[in-house]
Amino acid sequence: MRRKVVLATGAFDLLHYGHLKFLEESKRAGGPGARLLVVIARDRTVRSRKGSNPILPEDQRRVLVEALKPVEKALLGFEDLNLEDVIRRLRPDVIAVGYDQRDIYEAVQNLIREKGFKAKVVRIGRFGSDDLDSSSKIKRRVMENLGRSSP
Question: Taking the model in full, what pTM does it have?
Answer without folding.
Answer: 0.87
